[in-house]
Amino acid sequence: MTSRGAVNSGFSLWPETASVGAEQVDLVYLALLGLTLFFVILLGALALGFGVKYRVGRAAHRREVVHKTHLEVVWITAAALITLAVCLWGTYVYVDAVTPPPDARNIYVVGKQWMWKVSHPQGPREINELHVPAGVPVKINLTSQDVIHSFYIPAFRLKRDVLPQTYTSLWFNATRPGEYHLFCAEYCGAEHARMRGRVIVMEPAEFQRWLSDSKDLEPEPIPNAELAEARSDGHAEVFARYACGDCHKSGPTPEGPTLVGLFGQPVRLRDGRTVVADEEYIRQSIMEPNAAVALGQAAPSTMPTYAGQVDDEHLWQLIEFVKSLGADAGGIGPTP
Amino acid sequence: MTTLDAIILPAPSYLTAHWSLRSWLLTLDHKRIAMLYLTSITAFFFVGGAAAVLMRLELATPASDFVVSGAYNRLFTIHGAVMVWFFLIPSIPTVLGNFLIPLMIGARDLAFPRLNLMSWYVFMAGGALATGSIIVGGVDTGWTFYTPYSTTYANSAVFPMVAGIFVAGFASIMTGLNFIVTIHTMRAPGLTWFRLPLFVWAMYATSLVLVLATPVLAITLVLIAVERFWGVGVFDPALGGDPLLFQHLFWFYSHPAVYIMILPAMGVVSELVACFSRNPIFGYRFVAYASMAIAILGFLVWGHHMFVAGQSVHASMVFSFLSFLVAIPSGVKVFNWIVTLRNGTIHYKTSMVYALGFIGLFTLGGLTGLFLATLPVDVHVHDTYFVIAHFHYIMVGGAVMAYLGGMHFWWPKIAGRMYNEGWGIFSAILMFFGFNLTFFPQFILGYLGMIRRAAEYPPEFQLLNVLSSAGASILGVAYLIPLVYLTRSLVRPATAEANPWNATGLEWTVSSPPPEHNFDSTPVVTTPPYSYDAEKTAELEAVSP
Fold first, then answer.
1. Strand A197-202 to strand A129-133: parallel, antiparallel, or no bridges (unpaired)?
2. Chain A residues in contact with B459 (beta carbon < 8 A)
3. Distance CA B376, CA A39 (A)
4. Helix (H) or strand (E) run with residue B12 in it
5. Residue B291 maps to which CATH number?
6. DSSP state, residue A151
7. Which of B118, B224, B386, B435 could disulfide-link B381, Cβ–Cβ 3.0 to 4.6 Å?
8. Do the Cβ atoms of A208 and A120 come closer than 8 Å?
9. Is residue B316 a contact partner of residue B285, using CB atoms and an 8 Å limit?
10. Tens digits of per-residue pLDDT, B514-538?
11. Judged by CB atoms within 8 Å, which residues 248-277 of B form the interface with A?
């Protein structure tokens, strides 16, 4: 498999097939095509045969019509069994397709009107591009900042609606390095048609190079590890588990404010209020990020809500972790 | 003798009994109300069709150059909403159903003539609101109004459109209720349930769906308005609502709505196939029960619209299985229509060409429905042109072909005029080819991954899109030809015979067009339906050259 797929490939009647799952879907599709062809030929031949044989003016032997119930029942049962077999096979393939292997590499994708924002836990961020290694299971975690979008990669035969305030996911194991289309399949407003991107599948070694090169380009390449450094109380693991550190680094970044020194300090909000960053403020910011957006941050907040994602046990651990980051560096609003 | 002459002069038909505009607008005659609906839905059809023409022109090139995306989004919304709620759902029930049900069951009128007239006014009020939304800027949500886009984000005239559909829903409920009561209580002596024409069975099944499903749509639309105007969180998660709740409610109506469109079409085709093959329908009871099975199972499959939406895997598995089951009664019907041809004497009249076209296109539409019911395949083709092609095969290839086949079959009864068979057969065949050229390439585009509701697409999809647009222009012409020749037939004298096709059924026992009161005396039915005899074909040959 050395041939490379490309976004601008020419006219074709069959889509590119670039993942293990896509090959499975194609097999089910071909079975359904075969079934369709069978019924169309059978029914078409009958209709054509009768239509010619019994057309008006043609002398054919016309028998009294007797309804044979057993004939009807046999035909219904046979047709139903054949098609239900395909239904069950499809379900079997589907269950596989929605169950990611536990060792899948996680990538986070946020849909917003009208772009895809991709975050790799290793640091790199992309917009409308998604770099993934071939031959490795990759799990995409999806959420939306506004309306419902749908993350669709035809070459992988995969699509998943992207909902606000909820995480959904899909996974794939890409087989062929190349560039493939990424679409938004759910109508999401004026520029829905332009909410397109590219999926770039790379050989694993090439991908590792891309990953480390991209890291160097990051303005403040501070991984989770730095924030979690030397804090072995267990809360840091939860912080890492929810990938909070993808955006909240040791200094302010375009993705989000730093949490260092936040706790207990006054925070100026976009709506003019000033609140103290206490336990309730941290909880609210995790569960309802739009309820109190800090001055200098985007509104609606670029932070997805964690309502329904973080259970009570983890919530307090996150709050404890933010507390442990100290209160020595002033508020998180921009310094006037 | 002069007095006797006066008595035996034929009574004026429902068309000629009164001439004033008032006599049309305040009529309680089911046949005249059917004509009010016919003119209204024909107008709506060409409004929706015009939007489709503009869309196909835009899609001839990959860039959005003919219309900008904002305008395109309004075009597909108006096309979908007008075609679904103001053409397809009312089409066969309110025109052919209104006109034929009393005539087919030997009744003077529907059970509630005033309710029938009121339903037309309510329908028109809804239509005025919905099409009025175009004047105040159009709607850009798609006919499905997915939340939270429709409630929180869309800056277009969502309210008039939603209000129009809400209002028109009451017309649906009134019509359905009227039909159910009429069919239960007003059948002529001897007309038992299993002597009913299959068209009446189909209308009965359709009416059940209309009455049971439409209120759910009404509730859903009210909830959209409540959230949009007062910010009460129902569907928008930012307000504490659940967007999937909207999809469940919407499809709980809108999937059965597909059966509101296709069940009447199946009823029409049963009449046409029997008459023009001069045979009783093969397996009458199976076909009748299949209508009821489709109506009932149709309520249990809405989740197949939500396989990628975030519904649980287990729910998706159940909905996939149930969606396969609903294909079985449809398969029964197709098989029985084809076997009805056997041992018959087949007359290729315009209506029969439409009926055969229906069977072919509906079969392909139904089989491609199995692709969409199969979970992993749906994940790929959901929200692509595969879905567009599939439901147009059902709704346009199926429902519209059957509607036009029915219009041609009963046109002599409705208008009292014949039409030119040559033009009729020509436009039916042109429609069949134009339709396939328009929509077959869309199956391929869908599997290639072309998403729906997009004014722009990658350049490699252009060739198939150009084919589709070319097909649409042929299809457009094919729809205009019957409009011309059927309208022109009206200026000729009403000379059609009572039963030009030598068909069975009580509607053919009254004159063409029927008198206001339908039957001079209550008919008594003593025979099963479709008492055709393939050997005795001479009469049909004699009357229709």
1. parallel
2. 8
3. 22
4. none
5. 1.20.210.10
6. E
7. B386
8. no
9. no
10. 999 999 999 999 999 999 986 655 4
11. 277
- Percentage above 90 pLDDT, chain B: 89
What is the DSSP code string of A206-231?
HHHHHHHHHHHHSSS---HHHHHTT-
- Tokens representing residue B436 in the block: 């396939």
Whether the CB of B539 is below 8 Å from some CB of chain A: the reply is no
The whole domain housing B357 covers 26-528
Indicate which of A169, A183, A192 best probes the interface with B, i.e. most B CBs within 10 Å of its own CB: A192
Question: How do residues A152-162 score in pLDDT, each as one tens digit?
Answer: 999 999 999 99
Interface check B43 vs A, CB under 8 A = no
Q: By CB neighbour count within 10 A (0-12 exposed, 13-18 middle, 19+ buried), where does B309 fall? A: buried
Residue A313 pLDDT: 58
Token pair recorded at residue A256: 């989000």
pLDDT in tens, B274-295: 999 999 999 999 999 999 999 9
Find the CB nearest B238 among A7, A76, A164. A164
Distance CA B150, CA B154 (A): 5
User: Would residue B41 count as lying in a domain?
Assistant: yes
Count of the separate structural domains present in chain B: 1
Model confidence at A122: pLDDT above 80: no
In a domain, residue B128? The reply is yes
Buried b (16+ CB within 10 A) or exposed e, B318-354: ebbbbbbbbbbbbbbbbbbbbbbbbbbbbbebbbbbb
Surface-to-core class of residue A219, CB atoms within 10 Å of its CB (0-12 exposed, 13-18 middle, 19+ buried): exposed
Closest chain A residue to the Cα of B244, Cα to Cα: A163
Count residue pairs from A and B with Cβ separation < 8 A.
248
Tokens of B65: 């150059």
What domains can be seen in chain A, in order of their start residue?
A: 20-97 (no CATH), 105-217 (2.60.40.420), 224-324 (1.10.760.10)
Is residue A330 over pLDDT 60?
A: no
Strand (E) or helix (H) holding B235? none
- The CA-atom distances, in angstroms, between A327 and each of A253, A283, B322, B366 are 19, 17, 59, 66
In a domain, B113, yes or no: yes
Contacts of B282 in chain A (CB under 8 A): 65, 67
Banded pLDDT at A303 (limits 50, 70, 90): confident
Q: How far is B332 from chain A, CA to nearest CA, in Å?
A: 7
Q: Is residue B9 part of a domain?
A: no
Q: Calculate the CA B101 to chain-centre distance.
A: 16
Decide if pLDDT at A5 tops 70: no
Is B348 close to A165, i.e. CB distance below 8 A? no
